[in-house]
Design brief:
238 residues, alpha/beta, Purple Acid Phosphatase, chain A, domain 2, 6-stranded mixed β-sheet, 5-stranded mixed β-sheet, 14 strands, 22% strand
Length: 238
């Protein structure tokens, strides 16, 4: 399966940040948007932290099977058997066979969504010159780690080091990769400490889980219009 899903330059799309067991949020979004011909893109991290992790991911997998406009991207918390996460309460409650079965499903999830002027991922950007090369990324390699684990900081520089295994990338890295792949805006989740908008309104970080104590938000955009900046995205709180 391809790592990148390409959305058409028509219609509308809604982007959903980490849900982390917040099945109420997932159900509300599916009910509101999936029946209105929107593309509904979930940016990963469906499990752990929340009390309803299993119910949340089972619901989303079931809905995605019924509606091809629902896209479930991989998050780092879906990849615990490849790169361990903490907390891992969802995984800790599974039998070995159950963990293997879920991991097999999660490994079919794509890593990115590309659209008119934007790219959407769970966390960071791989160090590759074009989107075509993203399909060569393998589970566990450096660029896979960047996509699922990297944090951005609005500081000069490219690679800013690691803290607790999480890669920190600076504004110089962000601009280099975004310019190389020809995209104006990055839509992501993953990092609850990141500002909502960074890098001169070219990076949007959203969260859709009650687990972090942050306001739950989703992002809605018109796919027919090239996304120039984060100001072109409608943010909805709920």
């Amino acid at each position: 399966m391809a790592n990148v899903v390409y959305l058409p330059a028509k219609g509308k799309a809604v982007f959903v940040g980490d849900t982390h067991g917040d099945i109420q949020a997932s159900r509300s979004i599916i009910k509101r948007f999936a029946t209105r011909d929107y593309f509904v893109v979930f940016l990963g991290d469906y499990v752990d932290r929340g009390e309803k992790s299993r119910e949340n991911i089972d619901f989303l997998i079931s809905e995605q099977k019924k509606n091809s406009r629902i896209v479930l991207l991989a998050g780092n918390h879906e990849m615990n058997l490849i790169e361990p996460v903490s907390p891992s309460d969802f995984w800790d409650g599974l039998s070995e066979i159950e963990a293997y079965d879920y991991s097999k499903i999660f490994n079919t999830f794509p890593l990115a969504v590309s659209g008119n002027g934007f790219v959407a991922v769970h966390a960071g950007l791989p160090d590759l010159a074009n989107l075509e090369e993203w399909d060569k990324i393998k589970s566990g390699d450096k660029n896979w780690m960047y996509l699922l684990w990297a944090d951005f900081r609005d500081k000069d520089g490219e690679y800013l080091g690691e803290i607790c295994g999480r890669i920190k990338l600076g504004r110089d890295y962000f601009y280099r990769i975004m310019n190389a792949i020809g995209k104006n805006v990055l839509i992501r989740s993953h990092d609850p400490y990141a500002p909502e908008k960074m890098f001169n309104k070219r990076c949007l970080t959203i969260f859709t889980s009650s687990s972090y104590g942050r306001e739950r938000k989703i992002a809605v955009l018109d796919l027919s219009k090239e996304l120039e900046s984060t100001d072109d995205v409608e943010l909805i709180s709920f």
